[in-house]
Amino acid sequence: MALKKKKLAAIDMGSNSFHLLMAEVSMTGFFPKPRVLTRHKQKVRLADGLNAANTIDDDAAKRACQCLSGFAAELEQFQPDAVTVVATAALRKASNQIPLLEQFESALGHPIQVITGEQEAELIYSGVCSVSQCANDVLVIDIGGASTEVIAGHGLIPKYLQSLDMGCVVFQNRYFKGGVMSEPAFAQAKREATTLIEPFLNDYRQHNWQRVLGASGTFRAVSEIAHAESQPTLTREWLNELIQRCAQKGTVDALDFPGLREDRKAVLAGGLAILAGITEALNIEEFEVTYGALREGLLAQLANEVTA
């Protein structure tokens, strides 16, 4: 007798955080939708280990292996029927990618696929649509640790996407060294973000989105601060005020905004600068936060594969 349900596991080895989702999916019905049973997240900051030669250092590799060993123990207990594991921008960039993959696969006990920026953007869009209403034209932005994906889509279909070479960890290390924040540093970081998206502005402007949805950590941090401060709408104006307040604080250690989690302080400035640059370049006045991201897209893809 065929199984009525299958156990699935999806691992997203992001440039800032690693995520493990464990779920089950029904083998009956026309539209298989996985039900998440457990979520695990760990700040690994793989992109923190990238040096000028794009080599990921031993400390970052050790953090990754420790996290993956923990995930392996979770998988051993869960006994999934199917597992999918992807790595994103930090490993895409890494000049020592091959030896690192050997270490990481040994720690996890499963093969790891390093996906392209385009694949990452498509999975992010799928993940956002799996939890948010994407009925009409939408713009999805995901600021990761070492790359930022911007996707214009209609309904469930991504129409135009780019994976841009900027992320909150990379920008934090580049412009806010030693945790020092200043208005000139924010201005410089924001300019670079604008410059990186500028070549694609005409392509994006052909898509008349009705909603802008932000995925992943920077957006969640902004949303949590706004909620704690009773800010009803996420606007570009309020975002720029928040940046000014960060600059006035002067250092990462001095950040004490209501709603700001301790584990987000270290990369907040880098993420805010990227978000400010993108919203200005694309003339975005308001945006929302979604709790879908690459990992949900990965899980949805795996569910489709096992139930096909």
Automatic annotation (TrEMBL):
InterPro entries: ATPase_NBD, GppA/Ppx_hydrolase, Ppx_GppA_N. It holds the Pfam family Ppx-GppA. Residues 34-303 form the Ppx/GppA phosphatase N-terminal domain. PANTHER family: EXOPOLYPHOSPHATASE, RETROGRADE REGULATION PROTEIN 2. This is Phosphatase.
